[in-house]
Amino acid sequence: MGLNNGKVETLMSDFLRKSGGVAVIDGGFATELERHGADLNDPLWSAKCLLTSTDLVRQVHLDYLEAGADIIITASYQATIQGFGAKGFSKEESEAMLKRSVDIACEARNVYYERCSKSASTFTSDGKILKNRPILVAASVGSYGAYLADGSEYSGDYGDAMDLEFLKSFHRRRVQVLAESGADLIAFETVPNKIEAQAYAELLAEGIKIPAWFSFNSKDGVNVVSGDSLIECAEVADSCPKVVAVGINCTPPRFISGLIQSIKKITTKPILIYPNSGENYDADLKQWVKNTGVPDEDFVSYVNKWCEIGASLVGGCCRTTPNTIKAICRTLPSRSSYMA
User: Fold this and answer.
1) How many other CB atoms are found less than 10 A from the CB of residue 333?
2) Which of 21, 45, 125, 216 gives a 20 to 30 Å CA spacing to 10?
3) pLDDT per residue as tens digits for the range 328-337
4) Cα 197 to Cα 179: distance, rounded to the nearest angstrom
5) For residue 282, which phi and psi values (nearest 5 degrees)?
6) Does 317 count as an annotated binding residue?
7) Is 240 known to sit in a ligand binding site?
């Protein structure tokens, strides 16, 4: 199932209809890589595994598909040509690794479909979901702050000298490569400020042929993390023809309902939400503070309310797991036919 054929404005609505009205996004990627033993203490973060552990990346994608995810997001959030270049890789090698992030996710989808075709049931004895359904691969693009690896994607503070043309130049080739790599759409994630949203929107107008979503983050439930107005940021997304969904990620669950209602005021595009577990991130220590989030059962208790007030794509971000995604699937009425 791809999103790069037909009219952009109907593509996501068609996908959502085939998904029962609500599509499930996968959960925390780095969280799972670390749980499997990967050391991500590196400026490349989860993208480091594109160099060292491609089998593990593929397995995490599969784990999320078998938990019920309809959309898997590539391990390219912190993968940039500039970041790979700092590690000594050529431009060509860096572009190949960006493409590889999409290839691995597509391979996982193919393996999953093969397992579905060989399975006698959609719900296995060990809890895996093997249901042949439309599945999208979203190519992740993290913010400039994610490349800096200093926590500034959680503040949106790039300094007074930052300008639109610099950000467009920084992201341009990366976006082009990912758009041409076989992904169904581009996921611009954890967008921390309005200027970066504007940069993405203008890049999409430069001949990019696949659609995208914009997902912002907030730490106060009102504005994006930079202090820019969420309404103004969402308006940038709403006015971009290539954007097929707009929403929130990596934000505490307690803020999501109010943020959905704010976004609804200015767009009729599908709203996506994939919050973190509610834990706090310590940018100095570069780690999540344990015991500051909510357990899966509390996280999932919000899900139907989010859908009732307007969300149509739901998943998890940092510190959520395949168990979180499985629990989301269980609580969605549209999934009851094969989650019983």
Assistant:
1) 12
2) 216
3) 999 998 876 5
4) 17
5) -95, 105
6) yes
7) no
